[in-house]
Amino acid sequence: MHRLLLLDYDGLLYPGQPNRRDTSWMPWLVEALRPWSDVRIVLHSTGIYSSALPDRSHLSEMAPRLIGSTYGLPHKDALEAALRVNKQRVDHHLMVIAHSTVLPEGQFNILVCDAELGLSAQETQAALSAWLWRTR
Questions:
Q1: Exposed end of the chain (fewer CB within 10 Å): N or C?
Q2: Sheet strand arrangement including 110-112
């Protein structure tokens, strides 16, 4: 069994305007996940309409954790699809999104962060770290 992070690529992993190769905030995530070998990642982006996996080369050490993508789906549908596909293997999940969206409260485990700061925000880092420790 493992934990699943559904990461909103747009605004979470890079600053400013979308640039799929700019993953400026990835080093923090790499270090935060290093002790947790059970954590897997599904990337989500409403801005890309492709069912193909993104280019893994720029995802550095995170590539082995990447198990899928939900590109082009609304957030709620993306989380439901990722959980449905992985339901036999997921003990805990967290959807980390870089903007507020219309999602039913309490139904999903969601962390909303500032789209301008993404993973660079101390509050987001603290909340993600707390989830990792709480669900170990």
A1: N
A2: 66-69, 39-44, 2-8, 90-97, 110-112
Lowest mean pLDDT of 14-23, 59-68, 74-83, 103-112, name the range.
14-23
Contact 66, 55 (CB under 8 A): no
Bridge pairing between strands 110-112 and 90-97: parallel
Would you say 79 and 42 are in contact if contact means Cβ atoms under 8 Å apart?
A: no
Instruction: Confirm whether pTM is higher than 0.70.
Output: yes
Distant-in-sequence, close-in-space partners of 24: CB < 8 Å, separation ≥ 6: 13, 14, 15, 120
In this prediction, residue 125 carries a pLDDT of: 92
Whole-angstrom distance, CA of residue 128 vs CA of residue 88:
23
